[in-house]
Specification:
The structure holds 2 protein chains of 2 kinds. Chain A is mainly α. In chain A, about 75% of the residues lie in helices and about 0% in strands. Chain A has one domain. In chain A, α5 runs antiparallel to α6 (about 130-155) and α6 (about 130-155) packs antiparallel against α7 (about 165-190). The longest helix of chain A is centred in the first third of the chain and has 32 residues, at about 55-85. Among the domains of chain B are: about 125-205, TTHA1013/TTHA0281-like (2-Layer Sandwich); about 210-255, no CATH class. Chain B contains 8 helices and 9 strands. The longest helix of chain B is centred in the first third of the chain and has 22 residues, at about 10-35.
């Protein structure tokens, strides 16, 4: 519960939180609290997603969803750090990772806030494709807000290094694009998260296709153009 | 000049107003010292000539001497620094920016903890099986690709067999003819995991029962072969009803290859 208190600081006193990251105050404690909070929230949301297929799928998704975000963070964080350093940033890697964890935690909190809505749709609607697209939209909304937090944080934390500030802003937005791209491919690799009906439980599904064509196919099926098999 | 409280430094606005008032007073004095070009009513002024003379503009007031102006003017620095347009607040991350005052705590951590526990409990609750087939609340309302457990549901596992669910029992549809006779199409078939099929008890197979007008014999069509049903007792024992019987051409019936009779020890099957 103590670790969850960090969420209030992020949501209500974010500027103080970012200023503390800039000044390097309690970075380790912050990272731990952010990690614990985001893991809990992602796990719960993952369990909600997986509940559509089976209890095993719920457990599997509860493990895989936090893994998805953390793995993506680990893969993408060096890129942001070194590019920032290249363009005159005076941040440390710990500060960078703390900022990224902040963005991920914001995404996780928002996902948790959407969880009751997802449960409602899970219990009342018909359509696997609809449920899949609903989750894609929710993830997109929460992810965008998380990225906006990251952008605000970057602005404050890197306020000291005036040199190359404009370039760093560009780097951050390009990194966001890369992060989304890596994240979506990671999600495709770790799928299923929801579990297709009438298919038996599987921890990982065979690779093939990609995230984007699948989303287009799902939209096509919802609109009645074709059936996804 | 406006009166200033002794010992109190006048503000920039006051100084600007003072300057303005001084300028107005000088202008007024200059106007009074100049003779008016327009005669007052009742004055014995000469009539204007038919050719109108251009009105002479009143002379501009003499500007005050440079020393006087310098004395009246506020210090240069003061005027320049006067915030005529308010300077925008520094934005987050800009120089001079200070984070706003910290908002008091509203125990959001506790609230989030409760929400997380609530959703977790909800997830567990909707995954608890509530039906005899082990279907939980989360999967009780199926989606387009899921299944509603109901009579008449057509299922197919990994093998080639089709089954129809009736009274919670799986009934094998023995032939494509029977399948078509039931009015089924491929759209009605739900391909499921073999494990899903094992949870149901097996019922009587669904055959297509054929008879032709000129023959008393009845045959069950199974895998493209006709199986002679020995007697009416066996017919009812197999769970057939008269409505299952399809009347066909005797020639067609004769053309079908013979399968094992029902029961299998019934002897050689007669031809229709």
């Amino acid at each position: 519960m103590k670790d969850l208190a960090v969420i209030e600081t992020i949501l209500r006193n974010r500027y103080h939180f970012f200023a503390e990251i800039r000044d390097g105050i309690g970075l380790k404690e912050k990272m731990r609290a952010l990690l614990v909070s985001s893991l809990i929230f992602f796990a719960i949301y993952g369990a909600v997603m997986g509940s559509t297929a089976s209890a095993w799928q719920a457990i599997s998704s509860a493990v895989k969803l936090p893994l998805l975000f953390l793995a993506t963070l680990i893969i993408c964080s060096p890129t942001l750090y070194f590019f920032n350093v290249l363009f005159g940033s005076n941040q440390s890697l710990t500060q960078n990772v703390t900022l990224m964890l902040t963005a991920i935690t914001v995404t996780a909190v928002l996902l948790l806030s959407f969880a009751p809505i997802v449960v409602f749709f899970l219990l009342t609607t018909a359509g696997y494709q609809f449920f899949k697209l609903l989750n894609v939209v929710i993830f997109a909304v929460c992810g965008i807000i998380g990225v906006i937090f990251l952008s605000q944080g970057m602005k404050i934390v890197s306020a000291g290094g005036k040199e190359g500030a404009g370039a760093r802003r560009w780097v951050m937005w390009l990194w966001v694009f890369v992060y989304a791209f890596v994240g979506s491919q990671m999600a495709w690799t770790l799928r299923p998260f929801i579990g297709a009906p009438s298919m038996k439980f599987e921890l990982f599904r065979q690779l093939g296709g990609n995230f984007y064509t699948n989303i287009v196919a799902s939209i096509g099926e919802i609109l009645g153009f074709f059936v996804v098999r | 000049m406006t009166e200033q409280t002794p010992g109190k430094k006048p503000s920039t606005t006051d100084q600007i107003l003072d300057l303005l008032l001084d300028a107005l007073a000088e202008r007024e004095r200059a106007r009074q010292s100049t003779p008016s070009s327009v005669a007052a009513p009742g004055d014995q002024a000469p009539r204007p000539s038919p050719v109108e003379e251009k009105p002479v503009p009143p002379p501009r007031p003499e500007p005050p001497p440079a020393e006087q102006r310098r004395a009246a003017a506020p210090p240069v620095g003061m005027l320049r620094s006067a915030p005529l347009v308010p300077k925008p607040e520094p934005r987050p991350g800009e120089e001079g920016w200070q984070p706003p005052d910290k908002l008091p705590s509203i125990n959001m951590g506790k609230l989030l903890g409760r929400l997380a526990i609530l959703v977790a409990v909800l997830v567990v609750a909707i995954n608890i099986p509530v039906k005899s087939h082990g279907v939980s609340l989360a999967r009780i309302l199926p989606d387009a690709a899921s299944l509603i457990i109901r009579d008449g549901l057509v299922l197919k596992g990994s093998g080639p067999e089709f089954y129809m669910l009736q009274d919670n029992k799986l009934r094998w549809i023995s032939s494509l003819d029977a399948f078509e006779h039931l009015g089924l199409t491929w759209k009605d078939v739900h391909v499921v995991d073999d494990e899903f099929l094992t949870q149901f008890e097996k019922g009587h197979a669904i055959h297509l029962i054929l008879k032709c007008q000129s023959s008393p014999h009845i045959y069950a069509l199974e895998n493209g072969k006709k199986r002679w049903i020995k007697d009416i007792e066996r017919f009812t024992a197999e769970g057939y009803v008269w409505d299952d019987v399809q009347f066909v051409n005797c020639g067609y019936l004769r053309g079908l290859p013979d399968g094992l009779p029902i029961p299998e020890d019934a002897g050689p099957p007669p031809q229709p």
